[in-house]
Amino acid sequence: MTALTELSDAELQDLVVQAGGKAFQARQVAHWLWKHGVTDYAQMRNVPARLRDALAAAHAVQASRVRHADLAEDGTEKLLVEFGDGETVECVIIPDGERTTLCISTQVGCPVGCVFCASGMFGVRRNLTAAEIAEQVLHARARLGEGRRLTNLVVMGMGEPMLNLDGLLPALRRIHDPDGIGMGARRITVSTSGYPRQMERFAAADPSYNLAVSLHAADDRLRKQLVPTATSPVAEIVAAAHRYFGQKGREVTYEVVLLDGKNDRPRDADAMIALLGQLPCTVNLIPWNPVEEIVAREGLRRPQTLRVDAFAAALRAGGLKVTVRRQRGADRSAACGQLRLRQSPPPAGAPAG
Fold first, then answer.
1. CA 110, 112, 114 angle in degrees (round to 5)?
2. In angstroms, rounded to a whole number, what is the distance separating the alpha carbons of residues 88 and 48?
3. pTM of the full structure
4. E strands of the chain, at which residues?
5. Which of 91, 114, 281, 336 is an active site residue?
6. Burial of 218: CB neighbours in 10 Å, binned 0-12, 13-18, 19+
7. Would you call 336 a catalytic residue per the annotation?
8. Buried-exposed string 31-64: b where 16+ CB fall within 10 A, e elsewhere
9. Could you confirm whether 90 is annotated as catalytic?
């Protein structure tokens, strides 16, 4: 059963008219879908009952539901969102003072296969549709307490956004549209592990969103160890990101997941300075959130705070702007992909991809 959220505005209008309604009533229905995030036709109070009944006979309201939620002591809430085919992804609500950030997913699983990430442990199963991406915002917004609102959106959950631009770009338009969810483009950040050709397509889209690049290492050989599927040289990825800055005027953020003894050494900091030191950018350091299965398989460790601080200090001394992400939701499957792994573990011997 196709959900109303999966229809374009033109398709929704055609559907309403075919169901005996007026064209302007399609705008009313869309308003209930996106502005109010209703999940039941009965909530569409200014839509005639006859029209609601006709639509309900053939169409669900939304394409997904929240199957499970984990609330951490610090207020971080991780949602497991389930779709009509039974597949699931995660999204995470992160309150921080007056800010409330939502992290959303673009694929079921992930094809990138970073050695430290639970999302890609069993490969990618499929892309999300535009509705499935945008609905994560509706689910999160509905869970906020009175007086709180979503202030920021980051597309850096499960999946590689640049490999699902056909779903992502229309989803972002719906999220940004004042007649849709209505979130400003400056509050939306899309993260990629680095696909220069797709980054060019993303740069050509309107409006201008923020770009983050999951770099992890400035050395091609080391990065290949951490991101086995990496094919583009680091210099090529950074050049594409710098072109994005030149075209959009949005300073790029480079994400670095720090792993003890792997990419947090003084020489790793020196390489990062040599690569990025002359560019307008920010480096966001993320001490790794351990995943039991990955610790057992790869022997990776979270770096000590002193090593993180020393790495950050070295980058700053080299002229880079640096932020350090503090751990959130540590008591509730903090790492990306962990909740899905716990709630929907793939069968033994599942193929990676």
1. 105
2. 34
3. 0.91
4. 64-71, 77-83, 88-96, 99-103, 107-109, 124-127, 152-155, 188-192, 210-214, 252-258, 281-287, 321-324
5. 336
6. buried
7. yes
8. bbbbeebbeebeebeebeeebbebbbeebbbbbb
9. yes
Distance from chain centroid for Cα 79: 13
Residue with tokens 């939701």: 329
Count Cα atoms within 13 angstroms, Cβ side, for 295: 11
Residue extents of the structural domains in the chain: 4-56, 64-343
Phi, psi of 62 (to 5 degrees): -120, 160
Type of residue numbered 122: F
The one-letter amino acid code at 34 reads W
How far apart CA 248 and CA 259 sit, in angstroms, is 32
The amino acid at residue 29 is V
Q: List average pLDDT for each run of 10 residues in the chain, which is 353 residues long.
A: 95 97 97 97 97 97 96 93 96 94 96 89 92 98 92 96 98 96 97 96 96 97 95 97 96 97 98 97 95 88 96 98 79 52 51 39
2.40.420.20, 3.30.565.10, 3.90.950.20, 3.20.20.70: which CATH number matches 64-343?
3.20.20.70
Instruction: Determine which one of 87, 90, 132, 255 is catalytic.
Output: 90
Residues 6 or more apart from 247 whose CB is under 8 A from it? Answer: 203
How far, in Å, CA of 320 to CA of 30, rounded? Answer: 45
